[in-house]
Amino acid sequence: MTGPKLNERPGTRATLRGYHMSASKARVVLNLIRGEDVTTARDILAGTNREAADVVGKVLASAVANAVTNDAMQADELFVSAAYADEGVTMKRFTPRARGRAGKIMKRSCHITVIVSRLDDERLETLRNARTAQAAVSRTRRVASSRRRADQQASLNKRETAAIEAAENEALEAEANANATDVFEDEANETDVMEFDTVDTPLEDLEATDGAETETGTDETDVMEFDTVATPLEDLEATDGAETGTDKTDKTDKTDETEPVETDTPDTADETDVVETPAEETTDETDSTDTTEETK
């Protein structure tokens, strides 16, 4: 007894008619998914690099949708019970060839049919067990990979934190060194300023004071010389001359007090000359008085 015809097989079907492809090309792909469950058939078609794979995948999706919608079946319980491709209309064309002959061109088409049915209980149980085991394996793999990634991320975070801490410590050390250098420079500048004050300024002050002392000393000596010359005189003329001399010396002393202190020695010499002139006049007067007394 012959088996049932393809168009009489039980199940939910989907057919694509008149597709411009030869039936032999479509049958290569249909042979790959025949007898496989729907999930496996989809994976196979996704990994097949042929034009017919895309077309057969669309027909398979249509058959599964028909089974779920029309026959109230579950998509994960279906398998490809039948898949075949029939020849469709062939369009004949001709192309010119040598010596006036014509070459025949056959533009073929096909009808692709995919039938899906529900798995039996025994096969469905084995398929579920296999799926649960595969899910467990994939879960363990995912957990292991996630843990591995977490460990890698933790190690990376530790390295980053260690690098950040090292950078912060280096920055703090650099700042501390900079502060220390600044303090050292400030102290050095202060010591330089103190040395400058203690060494340079006293010399100037000492020179100024020495110059003032020398000027005052010469003035005192001039006054003393003038007194020794003018005191022995008894006559009024001599006393008048001494008074005029003392007045002049007082004026010179006042001018010396008011004028700024100068360290040049030529100025002092000039002052002494100016002050000593009254003494010479007094000596001349004393000589004249002595001569008058002698004549008397």
What's the gist of this structure?
This protein is α+β, with helices and mostly antiparallel strands and 296 residues long.
Describe the model:
By secondary structure, the chain is an alpha+beta fold. Among the domains are: 8-94 and 103-119, Ribosomal protein L22/L17 (Ribosomal Protein L22, Chain A), CATH 3.90.470.10; 200-295. 69% of the residues lie in helices and 13% in strands. It has helices spanning 23-33, 38-46, 51-70, 121-230, 236-258, 265-295; strands spanning 12-19, 78-87, 91-96, 102-107, 110-118. Strands 1-5-2 form a 3-stranded antiparallel β-sheet. Strands 3-4 form a two-stranded antiparallel ribbon. A hairpin with a 5-residue loop joins strand 3 (91-96) and strand 4 (102-107). The longest helix has 110 residues, at 121-230. 14% of the residues are buried.
Question: What characteristics describe this protein?
Answer:
296 residues, elongated, 69% helix, 13% strand, two-stranded antiparallel sheet, Ribosomal Protein L22, Chain A, single chain, three-stranded antiparallel sheet
Largest sheet features: 3 strands, antiparallel
**In the CATH hierarchy, what is the architecture of the domain at 8-94 and 103-119 at level 2?**
Alpha-Beta Complex
Element pattern in H and E: EHHHEEEEHHH
CATH class of the domain at 8-94 and 103-119: Alpha Beta
Note the beta-strand portion: 5-15%
Return residue spans where pLDDT drops below 50 for at least 5 consecutive residues: 226-233, 254-283
Q: What's the name of the CATH homologous superfamily of the domain at 8-94 and 103-119?
A: Ribosomal protein L22/L17
Q: In percent, how helical is the residue content? A: 55-70%
Total number of beta strands: 5
